[in-house]
């Protein structure tokens, strides 16, 4: 009897302490410093309104007042850090070659039309700018705009060069970097721990496990940004999904899209970004759940939604 009472009191004490710290995490953890906040994030510069990852796309997004540019980095054969999503150029340029095998001066231009990855049956037609830019071009053009860098390949030289560029342009306080790969994120953190990192996929799964076991409030976290998809929108064509795929998507959505999780993280100074949302109902759901920011291919649509609903972009700076 005494043993049962002891176990019950211990469990109750754990549950109550966990619940208290979930709501008031600063009782145990110092809140992380937030040098910037991003509500409006332009995915690849706004891949639904301009050709993705081009200077034209980035300028358009910054002119709209976006809080953050999201982009992808690779390295060319002559070790130039370029802004492009795919390792192979075929989808974006029609030329089947790897960026790492081509010198920067020899990179082909983008095609006139590119599909929008996260919008069904949507193609973006570009203007005159079909050029693959250098990362330094973006830093020079938009010195005050926070940038979210996806390191696309596990390459030590690429990680080192990105870090050097961030330091050179004095952007450690307005840059976040990482990848879904835990190995890449660990290398980024080791190369320059002053640049905030994203949660890797492995760390996201750990985060969810800690949340549902009640352990999360007790665990220190080095990451400052959680960037996760809204599972309900990831699949392009729900009509072609099997029943098991529907169940998995529903389960992932139910586990990830939790207001209590988002509120706990933001209370600890960890920003929560949900990607890649292109419809008003998804914008609303993400903000209603407590997400810090939304990443979109359509920056104009997101800006209009935010203005209509009183959720304004926080970045009032321009690229100059």
Automatic annotation (TrEMBL):
Segments spanning the bilayer are 6-24, 204-221
Give the catalysed reaction(s), semicolon-separated: 1-O-(1Z-octadecenyl)-sn-glycero-3-phospho-N-hexadecanoyl-ethanolamine + H2O = 1-O-(1Z-octadecenyl)-sn-glycero-3-phosphate + N-hexadecanoylethanolamine + H(+); N-hexadecanoyl-1-(9Z-octadecenoyl)-sn-glycero-3-phosphoethanolamine + H2O = N-hexadecanoylethanolamine + 1-(9Z-octadecenoyl)-sn-glycero-3-phosphate + H(+); N-(5Z,8Z,11Z,14Z-eicosatetraenoyl)-1-(9Z-octadecenoyl)-sn-glycero-3-phosphoethanolamine + H2O = N-(5Z,8Z,11Z,14Z-eicosatetraenoyl)-ethanolamine + 1-(9Z-octadecenoyl)-sn-glycero-3-phosphate + H(+); 1-O-hexadecyl-sn-glycero-3-phosphocholine + H2O = 1-O-hexadecyl-sn-glycero-3-phosphate + choline + H(+)
Highest taxon of the lineage: Eukaryota
The UniProt keywords, alphabetically, are: Hydrolase, Lipid metabolism, Membrane, Transmembrane, Transmembrane helix
Q: Name one GO molecular function term.
A: phosphatidylcholine lysophospholipase activity
Residue spans making up a coiled coil are none
Cell location: Membrane
The protein's matches in InterPro entries, at most eight in alphabetical order, are given as: GDPD-Related, GP_PDE_dom, PLC-like_Pdiesterase_TIM-brl
Name of the protein this chain belongs to = GP-PDE domain-containing protein
Q: Which organism is it from?
A: Oncorhynchus mykiss (Rainbow trout)
């Amino acid at each position: 009897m005494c043993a049962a009472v002891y176990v019950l009191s211990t469990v109750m004490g754990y549950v109550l302490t966990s619940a208290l710290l979930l709501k008031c995490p600063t009782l145990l953890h110092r809140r992380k410093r937030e040098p910037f906040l991003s509500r409006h994030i332009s995915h690849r510069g706004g891949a639904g309104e301009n050709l993705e990852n081009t200077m034209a796309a980035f300028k358009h997004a910054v002119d709209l007042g976006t809080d953050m540019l999201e982009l992808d980095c690779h390295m060319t054969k002559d070790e130039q850090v370029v802004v492009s999503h795919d390792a192979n150029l075929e989808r974006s340029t029609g030329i089947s070659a790897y960026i790492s095998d081509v010198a920067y001066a020899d990179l082909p231009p983008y095609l006139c039309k590119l599909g929008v990855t996260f919008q069904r049956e949507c193609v973006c037609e570009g203007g005159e700018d079909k050029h693959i830019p250098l990362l330094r071009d973006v830093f020079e053009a938009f010195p005050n705009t926070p940038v979210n860098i996806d390191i696309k390949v596990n390459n030590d030289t690429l990680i080192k060069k990105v870090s050097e560029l961030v330091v050179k342009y004095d952007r450690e306080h307005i840059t976040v970097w990482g990848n879904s790969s835990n190995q890449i994120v660990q290398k980024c953190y080791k190369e320059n721990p002053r640049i905030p990192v994203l949660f890797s996929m492995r760390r996201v799964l750990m985060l969810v496990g800690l949340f549902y076991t009640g352990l999360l409030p007790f665990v220190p976290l080095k990451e400052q940004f959680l960037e996760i998809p809204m599972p309900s929108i990831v699949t392009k064509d729900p009509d072609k999904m099997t029943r098991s795929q529907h169940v998995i998507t529903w389960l992932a959505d139910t586990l990830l899209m939790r207001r209590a999780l988002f509120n706990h993280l933001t209370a600890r100074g960890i920003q929560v970004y949900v990607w890649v949302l292109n419809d008003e109902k998804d914008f609303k759901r993400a903000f209603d759940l407590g997400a810090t920011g939304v990443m979109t291919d359509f920056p104009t649509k997101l800006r209009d939604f935010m203005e209509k609903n009183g959720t304004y972009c926080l970045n009032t700076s321009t690229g100059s």
